[in-house]
């Protein structure tokens, strides 16, 4: 069986050793039938139609900018209670946000709601720039206190 698979594997110009040797195709169970172009075109059209049906009710969400005030969806009761600001984008559709209480979360774009409210931090002044390295501010620009403990590790920076 292994020898059959080896000899029927395409190597040169899409032809296998057996095809070159015998001037014809060998039937094998592993590589299946080679489809005609019309059959492949029909498959592609069917995939395209399926994609259109799948995406018919989707909308493209806008990008969020650093420092923008947003609301976070509560994971338990699905309300938009927590006011936060965007620190940075860590992946497509994924953002690091900081709440008014100083906690930092990574959230998917579907769980973030844009708002035109003012962000009012309720934590102490010496914690304001703890995440300065994360959002791209140099250590000279931040007023980071040496005695302040970081809120999270540098795995996102």
Outline the secondary-structure elements.
Blueprint: H1 2-8, E1 10-12, E2 15-16, H2 17-22, H3 37-54, E3 69-72, E4 82-91, E5 94-99, E6 104-108, E7 112-114, H4 132-135
Antiparallel strand pairs: 1-2, 3-4, 3-7, 4-5, 5-6
Word description of this protein:
- A hairpin with a 4-residue loop joins strand 5 and strand 6.
- It is built from 4 helices and 7 strands, in the order αββααβββββα.
- It is 22% helix and 21% strand.
- Strands 6-5-4-3-7 form a 5-stranded antiparallel beta sheet, with no helix packed on it.
- The chain has a domain of 79 residues: SH3 type barrels, CATH 2.30.30.
- With 157 residues, the chain is α+β, with helices and mostly antiparallel strands.
Describe the structure concisely.
The chain has 157 residues and is of the alpha+beta class. Helices cover 22% and strands 21% of the residues.
